[in-house]
Amino acid sequence: MTATTANNNPDDPNLKTLLDFKKAVLEEQKAGEKKIEDINNQLESVKKQIDEERIQLDELRSKLKQVNEEKDAEYPKFMELRNSLIEAKNQMRSLDDKVSPAAAKSRKERSDMHNLQKTLEQIERDIQTKKLSKDEERKLVARSKEIATKLHALKMMHKKEDQYRTMSTQYDQLKDQVNRIFKLKEEYGNKIGKLKASLDTLINQRESLYEERRKFIHTVREANAKLEMIETQLNAIAFKKSRMQAAEHRHRKQKEMDERRVARQEAIQERAKRDKEYQERWNALKEAALKKMSSGEKLTFDEMKLIFGDSASD
């Protein structure tokens, strides 16, 4: 098919339109596939981050579980020691009241156990060594009982104070430990809350990416379907063009054969015409030679050949 024929082909405008459309669809397909690839890369990153944060969340939950177990073990001890400390303090107040009303105002007498002990020993020695009247002895014995009672109360007070100080130290240590536990519990709880919020955001982001990818996959599939239809149309045009070219080729070959046949026929007819004209001329010359011979005239060699030859072809 010549360029002119191709340009005059009525299918050419449709072919150009299809090729332009195919180019546009291919660009759409390529853009969609590129977008899908970008989304897949984003999904991989988001999935990796989700996996990492889930691992962190599991680790924090495990730590929080350990802290809760420690709290369950230590907090009852703390409350028990706190109640014991309150009870010990109440007992000390009760002993204060028993020692003397003035003891609440001044701790000097309560703390001067050494002097009280010396006074008690001196009174006991006086009772044993001095000559005392019954009234004096009765007063010293009463005084001795009073001091002994006060001394015993002070000793009990000091013992309770020592116990209270020990318990108070244990309480402070346990309180620090409990505060540390609750601080860790709060810290892990806050971290877990933030991680869960972050995971919710990441999961929503992942779902959005899935939805966006589904849209582009649909777009690419539509582009593929369009390309298949375009290819079908292009193949149909190519087939039609090939069929037309084959028909034109056959027509051209047939025309050439017809022209050669006509030329051969014309050549045969021309030759037959020439042969006929040559035969007629030969016959005329022969007849003239025969007349000449009948009249007794002398014949030439060529005239003799005409008379005695077999045919004009000779």
UniProtKB/TrEMBL annotation:
Superkingdom field: Archaea
Region (Disordered): 92-113
Protein name (record): Phosphoserine phosphatase
